[in-house]
Amino acid sequence: LEFSRVLFRSSQSRYAADNRFRDGSTNNFTITRNGDVKVTNFAPFAPSSAYSTTTNGGSAFFDGTGDYLTVSNQTAFSFGTGDFTLETWIYFDAVQGFIGIIDTRASSVSGDQPWVFGLRNSSGMKLELFLSDAARYAGSITINPRCWNHLVISRVSGTLRSCVNGVVDYNASMTSNVNANGTTQSIGRDF
């Protein structure tokens, strides 16, 4: 994928065997496991043959008790006013208050948030991008638990758009700085 800053990959069998997570982008950032997050053979793509991590991929499993991945202090997560895309497949078991998918806070302390890509419970789980200036860009499509969901937030030429399972959910002008401010980025910290 061109222009990928972090291409999170846990699909090769050698990584599944020892729970290693690898950045498949040209940046090759080190991804660090925290807690007991692990590679599993559960993925959004239904195999047409016997399951194989090499062929069918896998996913990260967060059990909700202190599991998360980190990528340390990468300026690649500071997009400024430029174009960017955040994309993931997510499967969650139950509706909860908040699910942080990618989080650039220095810690889990409220109010210390350069930007967060996640789901918030607002009469059902909704996709949102939250910025440190308290701006919240939230969609309106309810994202259901216990099934795979494909989520995308993208800004191109000053227009922010979010999509849930291929359906445009939010579309508006957004020219704010989107910066990580040199913090450690986490994946799945509030899951």
Task: Write structural notes for this entry.
The chain is mainly beta. It is built from two helices and 15 strands. The protein has helices spanning 13-18, 53-56, and strands spanning 8-9, 22-23, 32-34, 38-40, 59-61, 68-71, 84-90, 98-103, 115-121, 125-131, 136-138, 149-156, 159-164, 167-173, 185-187. The strands form four sheets. The protein has a seven-stranded antiparallel sheet with strand order 3-6-15-8-9-10-11, with no helix packed on it. A four-stranded antiparallel sheet has the order 7-12-13-14, with no helix packed on it. Residues 1-5 and 9-16 have low confidence and may be disordered.
Could you outline the blueprint of secondary structure elements for this entry?
Elements: E1 8-9, H1 13-18, E2 22-23, E3 32-34, E4 38-40, H2 53-56, E5 59-61, E6 68-71, E7 84-90, E8 98-103, E9 115-121, E10 125-131, E11 136-138, E12 149-156, E13 159-164, E14 167-173, E15 185-187
Antiparallel strand pairs: 1-2, 3-6, 4-5, 6-15, 7-12, 8-9, 8-15, 9-10, 10-11, 12-13, 13-14
Brief description of this entry?
The chain is mainly β and 191 residues long. It has helices at residues 13-18, 53-56, and strands at 8-9, 22-23, 32-34, 38-40, 59-61, 68-71, 84-90, 98-103, 115-121, 125-131, 136-138, 149-156, 159-164, 167-173, 185-187. Helices cover 5% and strands 37% of the residues.
Features:
single chain; 191 residues; mainly beta; four-stranded antiparallel beta sheet
Structural class: mainly beta
- Report strand %: 35-45%
Mean pLDDT: 79
In N-to-C order, the SSE pattern is EHEEEHEEEEEEEEEEE
- Count of strand segments: 15
**Major sheet summary line:** 7 strands, antiparallel
The dominant shape is globular
Poorly predicted runs of 5 or more residues:
1-5, 9-16
Oligomer: single chain
Q: Strands of the biggest beta sheet: in what spatial order?
A: 3-6-15-8-9-10-11
- Distance between the first and last residues' Cα: 26 Å
Radius of gyration: 16 Å
Count of helices?
Answer: 2
Helical residue percent band? under 10%
